[in-house]
Amino acid sequence: MYTTIFFIHISVRYIDEPISTQTSSNSELDLNPSTSSFGQSLVFDSLTPSTSTIIEDSSSNITYKQTKMTQFTLNKTSKNKTDNALAYFNATSMTPYNVVEKEGFKLFVNSLNPSYKLPSRKTVTKSRIPNLYIETSNSVGKLIKRANYLSFTTDCWTSSSNKPFIAMTCHFITNFKLASVCLGCIELSENHTGDNIADVLLS
């Protein structure tokens, strides 16, 4: 329907123009995107990102070559940034560290960037996660220092293995918004009695 309306518009608007004018106009604009170089570039860019494709522009004889994804190598800074993003994913989604060893996850990451090499499980455990913890702890400390008033809440529960745990959360106002940060979550050495909870909070 839209093609028919567009054809009628073209026919009515340019019916009185000389044939030479219509010919020159048509040569400047290719109305068929499926055969034009622009249409081809869109198709190749979206469907074959990992292969090299050569497209020639017949009007200027310029050759365009698509860069392979494997040629987009990561420098050290970009590699560290991606590793830290992976550690953040592990921490916030509570996924196990051995996710980097799963074949499906490796395939997924390789499809995003074949030049990126996943860190080992040991690197994530011994380096990336601890560094993320230190960075987060420093950021939380700065937020708390800027707050005028603080309030605290505790949450106690017993796990399925019958082990008692306690967590403490700090609440404060920052930029006229309520903020809450978890200060810690530890296993209690004894049951959830008032004296035991008080000892943990004071320590």
Note down, in words, how this protein is organized.
The structure is a single chain. The chain is an alpha+beta fold and 203 residues long. Helix content is 47%, strand content 19%. It folds into three domains: 2-70, no CATH class; 73-146, no CATH class; 148-203, Nuclear Transport Factor 2, Chain: A. Helix 4 packs across helix 6. The longest helix has 26 residues, at 121-146. The N and C termini lie far apart (76 Å).
TL;DR of this structure?
By secondary structure, the protein is α+β, with helices and mostly antiparallel strands.
Structure characteristics:
203 residues; alpha+beta; 3 domains; 3-stranded antiparallel beta sheet; two-stranded antiparallel ribbon; 19% strand; ZnF_BED_domain_contain; Transposase; RNaseH-like_sf
Number of DSSP strand runs: 5
Low-confidence sequence ranges: 2-8, 19-51
Instruction: Kindly report how far apart the N and C termini lie.
Output: 76 Å
Beta-strand proportion:
15-25%
Q: What class, by secondary structure content?
A: alpha+beta
Major pleated sheet:
3 strands, antiparallel
Q: Work out the helicity level.
A: 40-55%
| Tally of structural domains | 3
What does the average pLDDT come to?
A: 76
List SSEs in N-to-C order: HHHEEHHHEEEH
How are the strands of the biggest sheet laid out side by side?
3-4-5
Please compute the radius of gyration using only Cα atoms: 31 Å
Secondary structure tally, helices = 7
What spatial form do the alpha-carbon principal axes imply?
elongated
